[in-house]
Design goal:
The protein is α+β, with helices and mostly antiparallel strands. The chain is about 40% helix and about 25% strand. The longest helix is centred in the N-terminal third of the chain and has 76 residues, at about 1-75.
């Protein structure tokens, strides 16, 4: 007993030491985690502030440029008129008046002639301006003793800049003391000599409101400076047009950061810098306004960005302390329950192993179907099954006997092991009964009676069963409560099915059999409700419309299933699987070569070659004894299809050929039109709306519309570098 007590105490001591170490490690981990989170959050907040500031800068710049561009456009659009009027000096006044009248954003315009351009006139500068507070234009001359325009910046710089020049903003004392800027563009006469500058005066009374109202954060503010550093917009209104950014910088105690900022802005750079003013740190984001020489900046105090995270720091510290207390309690519970969890984990692993084996056995019962793997040239088939859990209740089966394809697809109610057992029984019944039965109705009836007699757990099975005669395309089928398959002919539609009850519900149920004829290149797509009822994270269903959209593109059987699986996977995303998913695609490939007549015609890529079609279709009409109206319709459909090839498949000026192969069958006439031009799918064109008038109807689409109306089946595929358009007319 004493030895056991010592051992127990040692275990307790060891456990206590281990627990203490775990608490210390946890505390260090929590502190490190908090620090990392804090640093990461700071980085994210800084990035967010940068994005918001840069976004506001860009948006504001664009609004400024919209306004300045209007003034520039007004000048550029009247350049040719000013050039033409140079020979008639009196008409120059009308040019400036026109610019002001036609452009509300322009408050004044001038044509300032180069001194002595006219021999008898030293200075001439026709000028039109709006009256203060009105839209009425007033025409005058800028040439005078009080205003020597050749010495003005807008004139001298305007002559030097071929692309135009925006003047330094100025206060227009004669126009009411408003802030103005002028855009100047040199004008050359017919001989190439620079004759004048054409200007547009732009009022900047809107600039303060536009820039000043930019609010990235509540206490952030915006500024705008000119190319000389003059403040155009500033929270301190006394600085506007009275001081430059360099003068303000020189008045500060620490000028190093502000000097760097002012140089960057005056050099027209884009970026951001950190400044300190009166012990507070701020981030400045700046960017130039193209062509004007101005630079805009947004100043964000550091506390505006990090204030919320710093307030959260104290709360995080409290929660960490609380977490450590909880951790001590958790360690105690973990030690007591470790053995129990180990036992449960062992049981879980054994169960997973057994389910894995069950899944392998279940998949081994189902035939492996893939493209080209049916070993029958009259039908190509592929199928797949994806259980929602380790084992499921979906199944499919198929095999060939006596030139017939026997196939089925089913879905057992419920999931997991019980559904898997019923699935195994259903598949075995199908194989056993169909081995000596060629009627889908009798096959399903026998399966239902057997399952109803042994259905003690009230589980049922939805089943679709079909028998396809590969020699003539006759498909006999019977549906027991399953989703109607999709039949792909010249359209994509559900196969008509009668609403029979599922298997196992009622003994003696009378099932109905149906029949349809498949033609060459027709296909059948079978699926379980795990396809249409697949859910995405928003609980939306995949649905029949998305399924049909995938089936709209014709592919080989394996590619068709892979495309559908990918579409479902993209739609479902991270949502968990809600049901088993099983699909089967059957492509009927019997061309009936023993009962066909073939004709071919090769045309050059020339619209004149279409005339040869009449003789080609005429000979086919004689062989098939078709009436003239039908022959003319078929000839029209061929003309439209081949015209599309000539117009779109081969680039203009490039030679090529169009191959037309006609296959005359008993009861049908197939045309295959192929070319080696660029990929072009005429069937992808939207349906033409023939209800619209000729003037309202968009160009194009009528050709394929006529083809679809005349022919019974139309399909397109790209194969081996060729465009292949197939058209079928049933006779």
């Amino acid at each position: 007993m004493k030895i056991n007590d010592i051992a127990d105490k040692q275990l307790v001591k060891t456990g206590a030491v281990t627990g203490l170490l775990m608490v210390i490690i946890a505390a260090v981990t929590l502190e490190a985690t908090a620090l990392i989170q804090y640093l990461y959050s700071q980085k994210q907040l800084k990035q967010e502030a940068s994005l918001r500031a840069e976004s506001q800068l860009e948006a504001t710049k664009n609004r400024i440029l919209d306004i300045t561009n209007q003034a520039e456009s007004a000048v550029r659009n009247n350049t040719w008129i000013a050039q033409w009027c140079l020979n008639v000096p009196d008409s120059l006044y009308r040019v400036t008046q026109r610019i002001v009248e036609d452009n509300p954003s322009v408050v004044g315009s001038a044509i300032a002639l180069v001194p002595d351009y006219y021999k008898d006139i030293h200075l001439l500068a026709p000028y039109t301006a709006r009256r203060l507070g009105t839209y009425e234009p007033v025409t005058m001359s800028l040439a005078g003793e009080e205003y020597n325009y050749p010495e003005q910046e807008w004139f001298k710089k305007g002559l030097e800049n071929e692309q135009g020049y925006w003047s330094e903003p100025y206060v227009d004392e004669g126009g009411g003391g408003i802030l103005m800027t002028t855009f100047s563009l040199p004008i050359k006469d017919a001989s190439g000599r620079t004759a004048a500058v054409l200007t547009a005066d732009l009022s900047l009374d809107w600039l303060s409101d536009l820039v000043g109202n930019v609010k990235v954060y509540p206490n952030a503010y915006s500024m705008m400076i000119s190319r000389s550093g003059q403040f155009l917009v500033c929270p301190v209104e006394t600085l506007v047009m009275h001081q430059t950014i360099q003068e303000v910088t020189n008045s500060m105690e620490d000028t190093s950061m502000m000097n760097s900022l002012s140089r960057s802005m005056l050099n027209g750079e884009t970026g951001n810098q950190t400044i300190r003013y009166k012990g507070a740190t701020s981030y400045v984001y700046f960017s130039p306004v193209e062509r004007t020489g101005w630079s805009m900046s947004i100043v964000i105090p550091e506390n505006e960005i990090y204030g919320s995270i710093r307030r959260a720091g104290a709360l995080v510290g409290f929660l960490q302390l609380l977490g450590l207390v909880m951790l001590v309690l958790i360690i105690r519970a973990v030690i007591l329950n470790a053995l129990k969890f180990r036992e449960v984990d062992d049981k879980k692993k054994r169960m997973e192993g057994e389910l894995h084996i069950a899944n392998a056995i279940q998949m081994a019962m189902i035939p492996k179907a893939s493209a080209g793997g049916t070993e029958n040239e009259d039908a190509d088939l592929s199928a797949s099954i994806t259980p929602a859990k380790e084992v499921g209740g979906d199944f499919y089966d198929y095999y060939f006997r006596d030139q017939k394809l026997f196939f089925c697809i089913g879905d057992v109610s419920g999931k997991g092991v019980p559904a898997a057992l019923v699935m195994a029984v259903s598949r075995s019944l199908f194989r056993t009964i169909s081995a000596h039965e060629s009627s889908p109705k009798r096959l399903i009836t026998a399966m239902n009676d057997f399952m109803s007699d042994t259905n003690e757990n009230n589980m049922f099975v939805t089943l679709f069963c079909g028998i396809l005669d590969l020699t003539n395309g006759r498909l006999r089928y019977c549906n027991a409560g399953h989703n109607p398959p999709i039949i792909l002919t010249n359209s994509i539609q559900p196969l008509p099915v009668r609403p029979n009850l599922p298997l196992g519900v009622m003994h003696g149920m009378c099932y109905e059999e149906q029949e349809v004829i498949l033609h060459y290149d027709d296909a059948l797509f079978l699926y379980t409700d795990g396809l249409t009822e697949a859910e995405n994270p928003e609980h939306e269903l995949f649905g029949e419309e998305r399924m049909k959209a995938v089936l709209h593109t014709r592919r080989d059987v394996q590619a068709q299933l892979e495309a559908m699986q990918q579409a479902v996977a993209d739609f479902v995303g991270t949502a968990p699987k809600s049901d088993d998913l099983t699909m089967m695609f059957i492509h009927y490939m019997n061309k009936k070569p023993n009962s066909t007549t073939e004709r071919s015609l090769t045309l050059n890529n020339d619209i004149q070659q279409i005339a040869r079609l009449a003789e080609f279709t005429g000979s086919i009409a004689e062989d098939t004894h078709m009436d003239n109206a039908l022959a003319m319709g078929i000839n029209l459909a061929l003309e439209e299809a081949i015209t599309n090839v000539i117009m779109y498949a081969y680039p203009q000026g490039e030679g090529g050929q169009v191959q037309i192969d006609a296959v005359i069958r008993e009861g049908s006439l197939d045309f295959i039109i192929s070319d080696t031009g660029i990929p072009f799918d005429p069937t992808a064109a939207p349906e033409a709306d023939t209800s619209l008038g000729v003037e309202d109807r968009p160009i194009g689409g009528l050709g394929i519309f006529l083809v679809r109306k005349i022919m019974d089946k139309v399909s397109y595929r790209r194969e081996n570098g060729k465009n292949i358009l197939s058209m079928t007319k049933f006779l």
